[in-house]
Amino acid sequence: MAKKITQMKKLIIAAGTGFLGQVLVNHFKNKFEEIVILTRRNSKTVDGIKYVNWNARTFSGWEKELENATVLINLAGKSVDCRYTQKNKKAILLSRIESTKILNKAVLNCKNPPKHWLNSSTATIYRFSLDKQMDEADGEIGNDFSINVALSWEKAFFKTETPKTLKTALRTSIVLGKNGGAFIPLKTLAKFGFGGRQGKGNQFVSWIHEEDFANAVDFIIEKEITGVVNVVSPKPIRNNDFMEKLRKAVGFSFGIPLNNFLLEIGSFFIRTETELVLKSRNVIPKRLLEKGFEFKFGEIEGTFKNLIK
């Protein structure tokens, strides 16, 4: 009797060398037999992980890696942690649209395309909200630069039909992790006495622990959840409370509040935008909860405790 050959499980992460990419690699490294990272850096293999060069705009051979892949995760897009100059705005938009469009073409060209494609999106797609929690069904979309980027991004993703490939847009909030993302500068601010409220402090922060982020992505793949999914913790918290609990976690009782004027000055010098801390993201993970996903870090106190220890 011929031995049954099990299909090789292959994960591809486009733009997987950054903070979130490494969170996912660490989570999935023992769950997939093969992991391929599409990167702007040189092609190489390190610790069993294959890095393949791409420019996120055109075919150059990387597209062959998509054949027989189980899962494709696209994290490509210029960081929004920059000044919103016209040049940067254009790069923020095009880096998301172009990478998504070329991946759509690559998926359609495959004989055996990836079974499931998860594409980055953002919880910033919802309007500034102090009054209403935004879920996937009833969330209200706003109208500003960041929101319009998110809308264009999701449109580029979904408008091309891929009959053999499931599609999910990950509307992710601030991912709090030990080795990257927003947590490191926030922790530094708190340690130096600048951990007071930012702006009025009544704006909501939607956040998620890095471990829950990876577990949620795993859960979405396992349950084959398609469409849009809010990848956020169940409990948005007001900025004032968020910063107070962060100060407590780092052991610094005092925190100078940063009003809008001071934030504008500070953001200019560190080349970023105040929107990143002043927008009220009041977003909840309705679909994940309905499907039975359980958060390991549902409370901000436990999250800070875990990340600081």
What do you see in this structure?
This protein is an alpha/beta fold. The chain has a domain at 10-181 and 207-232 and 284-292: 3-Layer(aba) Sandwich (Rossmann fold), CATH 3.40.50. The chain contains ten helices and twelve strands. It has helices at residues 19-28, 86-109, 145-158, 183-191, 210-223, 239-250, 260-269, 275-278, 286-291, 300-308; strands at residues 10-14, 34-39, 44-46, 49-53, 71-74, 116-122, 166-172, 174-176, 204-205, 207-209, 227-231, 237-238. The protein has an eight-stranded mixed sheet, with helices on both faces. The radius of gyration is 20 Å and the shape is globular. The N and C termini lie far apart (54 Å). Mean pLDDT is 94; it is low at 1-7.
Main structural class: alpha/beta
N-to-C terminal Cα separation, in Å? 54 Å
What is the H-and-E element order?
A: EHEEEEHEHEEHEEHEEHHHHH
Question: What CATH first level of the domain at 10-181 and 207-232 and 284-292 would be assigned?
Answer: Alpha Beta
Largest sheet: 8 strands, mixed
Strand content: 15-25%
Second rung of CATH, namely the architecture of the domain at 10-181 and 207-232 and 284-292: 3-Layer(aba) Sandwich
Radius of gyration: 20 Å
Rounded mean pLDDT is: 94
Strand runs, count: 12
Helix content: 25-40%
- Major beta sheet, strand line-up: 3-4-2-1-5-6-7-11
> So, the CATH homologous superfamily of the domain at 10-181 and 207-232 and 284-292?
NAD(P)-binding Rossmann-like Domain
Low-confidence stretches: 1-7
C-alpha geometry: globular
Query: Treating each run of at least 4 consecutive H or I residues as one helix, how many helices?
Result: 10
CATH topology of the domain at 10-181 and 207-232 and 284-292: Rossmann fold
